[in-house]
């Protein structure tokens, strides 16, 4: 039976065909190894179907290995391949088969999805041709498979990317453009036209002239210069801000960005793509900020993220002695040729969003003068919250620094003078002597007149005399402290001194049921005046006993640590505590008390103790909570080897 083919496998060769093609066709007919090579090497599957016995179909090895199966184990039956085809694709296969059977001019060529043995999808281009008998009846069918999975995956990846970028463009409201640099062909999207108040149809026909018509000559010249830099590969992309005429007659500002995406063989640009973003509000805000900076009395300069000047105040020019008044657009590094590596690093960190401050820095100006400057570097952000550049604010504190040095010296002198003036005229031998004489005469008078001892007026005299003597004694202690600063400090073992003081108050502590714990190490020494150190410790320990809480078991704990400059002695109790929010400012004042229900509380102890601590070069800190307790930290110097 002679077969009639829908596509002739052996076309007639004429003299115009290449001799190698003739030889190849001849070899295919005479040498089966040539055919084997072609069907294995050029295709991903080959099948031959007997349409008169439709259960039988022959499939080569590549057919099954493409889907992950062992060809030796797969039967040459129709059911064997139908089971791994997607059901919806199988319907299309049979529909296409029917169309090709009915009309040979309708090609059997389609994409079919198969399920790989490992579970993933294999995309196959399936092509076939029917062999017919003399009456045109289909009797055999030859098919070829080509694995196009990689192509399909790439198509899907591109589709997702395209959808992603379309989403971004829609979300940001960007106008997009494409421009063929060689031919001038220009493609704009609808948003580009809307930006200037038109529809795309109103701007037809679209060309490069569309942009030229709605922009200024000045901006066009600037844009052309930036384009030229990009075309010469001096810049990685093109970026320019310019004005465009809106349909309503107003001018809007547009940020134009673009990049060449294809080059010809000679290295000339072909296609360029880009976007337009309206920045009118941003430009107005920037202009307002620029005017503010230029007119402010402070030293302020504004830079973009390339450290080019955007604005600078008059004070900025004065402080840095800048003579070039036309610095806008110039680089910070150009104006200041000598910049320390530390300053460069600060600028880099600030452009990443960090705020950099320096409260005082000594710098040398161009004229050779020295100035003390306080400065701050801070980023500024665009409307889309991207870092736009830096703002540097500088204050000249030279005068303040000089004043502070003088004030520091004056404060010491004034403090000492104030104390001496307040107490020197009171605390004198004469006043003390007169007070003693008054008290002695009062005692003699009572000895001679014992019957009036209980007289109320005499009692008041007695009380007044006693209070006067106490006051003079207290003031005398203050004067002694301030006049004893020239005494030599001696090194003392802190633990031993504490133990001695604790032994002295042990009876009071026992009676008051207060436990005193000395946790200070034997190895800690301090520099102090012995009498002062005894007085300091005695006052804080007795205060801990006096202001104990009767609601719980009381304790006083002393501990110490050595820091770089001080020995810090902590005296902690769990007593009544002090309301520091209310009383902190007057805590160490003379005659200040904070517990009205405590007898014999005169408010002189902390005042004297603070003066004693400062007299030996130390300081006091306090933390306290009402009804929880108080911790005093006494900072004392020590001998450094």
TrEMBL record:
Question: Which PROSITE patterns does the record associate with it?
Answer: HIS_KIN (PS50109), PAC (PS50113)
Pfam families noted in UniProt: HATPase_c (PF02518), PAS_3 (PF08447), PAS_4 (PF08448)
The PAC domain covers 108-160, 238-291
Q: What is this protein called?
A: histidine kinase
Q: Which UniProt keywords apply?
A: Kinase, Phosphoprotein, Transferase
A single GO molecular-function term is:
protein histidine kinase activity
Q: Which InterPro entries match?
A: HATPase_C_sf, HATPase_dom, His_kinase_dom, PAC, PAS, PAS-assoc_C, PAS-like_dom_sf, PAS_4
Question: Which reaction does this enzyme catalyse, per its entry?
Answer: ATP + protein L-histidine = ADP + protein N-phospho-L-histidine
Q: Start and end of every Histidine kinase domain?
A: 426-640
Q: Does the keyword ATP-binding apply?
A: no
Q: CDD domains under this entry?
A: PAS
Could you tell me the EC number(s) of this protein?
Answer: 2.7.13.3
Q: Which PANTHER family match?
A: PAC DOMAIN-CONTAINING PROTEIN (PTHR43304:SF1), PHYTOCHROME-LIKE PROTEIN CPH1 (PTHR43304)
């Amino acid at each position: 039976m002679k077969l009639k083919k829908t596509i002739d496998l052996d076309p007639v060769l004429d003299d115009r065909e290449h001799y190698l093609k003739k030889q190849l066709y001849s070899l295919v007919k005479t040498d089966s190894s040539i055919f084997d090579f072609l069907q294995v090497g050029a295709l991903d599957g080959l099948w031959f179907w007997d349409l008169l016995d439709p259960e039988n179909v022959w499939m080569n090895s590549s057919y099954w290995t493409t889907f992950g199966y062992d060809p030796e184990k797969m039967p040459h039956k129709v059911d064997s391949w139908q089971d791994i085809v997607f059901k919806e694709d199988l319907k299309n296969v049979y529909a296409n088969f029917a169309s090709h059977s009915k009309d040979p001019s309708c090609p059997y060529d389609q994409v079919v999805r198969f399920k790989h043995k490992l579970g993933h999808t294999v995309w196959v281009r399936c092509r076939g041709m029917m062999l017919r008998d003399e009456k045109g009846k289909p009797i055999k069918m030859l098919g070829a498979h080509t694995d196009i999975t990689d192509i399909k995956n790439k198509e899907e990846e591109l589709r997702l990317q395209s959808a992603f970028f379309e989403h971004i463009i829609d979300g940001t409201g960007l106008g997009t453009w494409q421009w063929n640099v060689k031919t001038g062909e220009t493609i704009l999207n609808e948003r580009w036209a809307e930006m200037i108040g038109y529809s795309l149809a109103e701007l037809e026909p679209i060309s490069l002239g569309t942009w030229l018509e709605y922009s200024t000559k000045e901006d066009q010249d600037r844009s052309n210069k930036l384009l030229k830099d990009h075309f010469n590969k001096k810049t990685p992309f093109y970026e320019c801000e310019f004005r465009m005429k809106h349909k309503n007659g107003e001018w809007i500002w547009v940020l134009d960005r673009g990049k060449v995406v294809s080059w010809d063989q000679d290295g000339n640009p072909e296609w360029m793509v880009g976007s337009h973003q309206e920045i009118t509000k941003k430009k107005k805000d920037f202009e307002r900020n620029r005017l503010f900076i230029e007119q402010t009395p402070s030293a302020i300069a504004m830079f973009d993220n390339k450290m080019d000047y955007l604005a600078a105040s008059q004070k900025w020019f004065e402080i840095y002695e800048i003579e070039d008044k036309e610095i806008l657009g110039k680089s910070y590094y150009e104006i200041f040729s000598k910049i320390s590596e530390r300053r460069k690093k600060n600028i880099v960190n600030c452009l990443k969003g960090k705020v950099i401050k320096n409260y005082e820095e000594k710098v040398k100006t161009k004229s050779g003068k020295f100035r003390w400057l306080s400065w701050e570097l801070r980023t500024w952000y665009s409307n889309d919250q991207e870092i736009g550049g830096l703002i540097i604010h500088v204050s000249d504190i030279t005068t303040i620094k000089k004043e502070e040095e003088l004030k520091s010296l004056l404060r010491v002198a004034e403090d000492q003078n104030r104390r001496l003036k307040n107490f020197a005229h009171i605390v004198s031998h004469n006043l003390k002597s007169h007070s003693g004489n008054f008290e002695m005469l009062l005692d003699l008078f009572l000895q001679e007149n014992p019957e009036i001892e209980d007289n109320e007026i005499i009692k008041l005299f007695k009380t007044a005399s006693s209070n006067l003597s106490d006051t003079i004694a207290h003031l005398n202690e203050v004067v002694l402290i301030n006049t004893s600063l020239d005494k030599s400090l001696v090194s003392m073992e802190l633990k031993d001194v504490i133990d001695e003081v604790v032994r002295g108050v042990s009876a009071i502590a026992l009676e008051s049921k207060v436990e005193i714990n000395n946790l200070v190490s034997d190895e800690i020494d301090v520099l102090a005046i012995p009498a002062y150190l005894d007085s300091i410790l005695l006052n804080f320990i007795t205060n801990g006993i006096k202001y104990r809480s009767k609601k719980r078991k009381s304790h006083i704990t002393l501990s110490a640590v050595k820091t770089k400059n001080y020995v810090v002695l902590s005296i902690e109790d769990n007593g009544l505590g002090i309301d520091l929010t209310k009383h902190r400012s007057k805590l160490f004042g003379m005659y200040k008390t904070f517990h009205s229900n405590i007898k014999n509380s005169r408010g002189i102890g902390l005042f004297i103790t603070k003066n004693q601590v400062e007299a030996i070069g130390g300081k006091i800190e306090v933390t306290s909570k009402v009804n929880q307790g108080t911790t005093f930290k006494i900072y004392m110097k020590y001998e450094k080897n």
